[in-house]
Design brief:
mainly beta, about 0% helix, Neuraminidase, globular, about 375 residues, five-stranded antiparallel sheet
Length: about 375
Amino acid sequence: MQRRTFLRNTALAGTAIVMPAFLTGRAAVSDDLIVGQGAHQYKVNANWAKVSPRQYPLINCHEMVADRSGKLYLLGDHPSNNVLVFDRSGKVTDSWGYTFPAGHGLTIFDEGDEETLFICDTGSHSDQHGRRRNQPGSVTKTRLNGEIIFQLGHPQTIGVYQPGMAYHPTETAVAPNGDVYVADGYGSNYIIRYDANGRYLQHFGGKNNEDARYNLNQAHGVAIDLRKAGQPRLVVTSRNDQAFKFFTLDGKFIEQVTLPGAYVCRPVIHGENLLAGVCFANTVEGKIRQKHNGYITILDGDNKVVSNAGGTAPTYKDGQLQPMYQDPAVHNLFHHGHDVCVDADENLYLCQWDAKGSAPIFLERV
């Protein structure tokens, strides 16, 4: 029998929650600030989200997806609300869930008769007393209102992992046939494949393969890439390699696309483009800064970078992409780009990690 539980927001009575300072004053930004290059330029609106920090407190805005009606679902890791639902104007219309304290990955899948969500909880979080917890993660399938449909089993319980192997899943992708791919990006770096009913099929990746092309170094994100007709592919983030790796849907390596200077998060496929939030970016001195980094990188159908929204213009020399950096114009506004959501009008929503509890930034296509 499938376990079904409804996760509606309730007050955490008697629980003392330590909340970060909300970003009440953003850096001064021109009302006509345009970021990006070429055909992918955007006007920045840092105050799109109408979120009361008292009613809907935020810590990290990890990921956002849009349903077919245009509603936007934001996954965060605050213990009183994991999911906030926005309309296109930035108004919160619903909130639910408080059992995903390390909510990280959010994927939407259209099953025809309904759309469903897959939520990755990495298991690594701070509890209500500020103590760090590093428990195993989980992957849960829900309806759009938060009703749980099922939860995938821990890889050790199905014989995939040996005792002691870390499991902290960061992202899922769902193939057209319903197969689910789980990226264990903060754990053992495997991609684990299940069928639509949650039965294990295979796994690949990890870090110690005889063929190094299969190694994944922080497999932070995963997506189904259907841009090439008749050639479905799986694109996987290898973030510490500043790269995406492409595989067949049964795990055979195809190619690697390296993005110098860009520590990319999950890949997002929209039309002919691949987009990704950049969580860390090299400075012009070539060092990684832990503060005030990030932008959105946009690749075309040939996986060439065509625009960096909030980053420097992409440059190729002798066919090789040169290092990319954050644009100084957004230095105090774009912090750690963790995800990008694209709506039906080609507008972008930038979700950020470690950004002082700030809500997503709206980038209007121009």
